[in-house]
Amino acid sequence: MYTLLSGLYKYMFQKDEYCILILGLDNAGKTTFLEQSKTRFNKNYKGMSLSKITTTVGLNIGTVDVGKARLMFWDLGGQEELQSLWDKYYAECHGVIYVIDSTDEERLAESKQAFGLPPLHYSQLYGPLGPASTTAQEASTLGAPPRASWCPPGRGWGWIPCSCVDV
Ligand SMILES: Nc1nc2c(ncn2[C@@H]2O[C@H](COP(=O)(O)OP(=O)(O)OP(=O)(O)O)[C@@H](O)[C@H]2O)c(=O)[nH]1
Ligand SMILES: [Mg+2]
User: Fold this and answer.
1) Residue 23 binned pLDDT confidence (cut-offs 50, 70, 90)
2) Which residues of this UniProt protein bind Mg(2+) (predicted)?
3) Contacts of 7-15 spanning 24+ positions with Cβ under 8 A
4) How many alpha carbons fall within 13 Å on the CB side of residue 148?
């Protein structure tokens, strides 16, 4: 009886958990995105002032509940010396959000290079990365690498222009 009830409870209330990496160059807006997501989706969360966000050394972890899903975000530091740590998290994550500051044209090439990691890293990814929301051509215009080099075959991907400040 206990097993039955606990199974029913889990079915009704337990959320599916997914780990999402937030990557991108330093100053791209990763932590701002995480703070805004927590503020927007977590009812009782009192967001910190965006002006108080400083560069991330290590990682920030944030949880956001969306419907029956619990998203555990890992926001990693984007400074060059920290980028070598990114691939240590791929095997554990279900998806990646790669943040690019599209107004920082001088660093678009650098951003593309930082994400254009060897296919080996990406083959460790599993789970859908999200619905396709734009074409490869549009992505390419903004400096994103061609899909084949950064998204494993059969995985979903999307390209979503947004602002994390004017929301
Ligand atoms: N205009 C504008 N500014 C933004 C946006 N997102 C972030 N910023 C600003 O960009 C700066 C850097 O934001 P962070 O969130 O600290 O960047 P980060 O990617 O976490 O940087 P690291 O922790 O160093 O890797 C801050 O001054 C933010 O206010 C945005 O959507 N629009
Ligand atoms: Mg940060």
Assistant:
1) very high
2) 31, 56
3) 15/65, 15/68, 15/69, 15/70
4) 0
Q: From residue 37, how far is each of 60, 103, 137, 139 by CA, in Å?
A: 13, 21, 28, 23
Q: Is 14 labeled as catalytic in the residue annotation?
A: no
Domains of the chain: 2-140 (3.40.50.300)
pLDDT at position 37: 93
Q: Which atom of ligand 1 is nearest to the CA of 32?
A: 15
Measured from the Cα of 82, ligand 1's closest atom is 25
pTM for this predicted structure: 0.81
The torsion angle over the Cα atoms of residues 38, 42, 46 and 48, rounded to 10 degrees, is 0
Residue nearest to atom 6 of ligand 1 (CA): 29
Residue 62, phi then psi, degrees to nearest 5: -140, 145
Cβ of residue 77 lying under 6 Å from some atom of ligand 1: yes
Per-residue pLDDT tens for 113-163?
888 744 333 333 333 333 333 444 444 454 555 554 556 666 667 667 778
Identify whether the C-beta of residue 156 lies closer than 8 Å to the C-beta of residue 130: yes
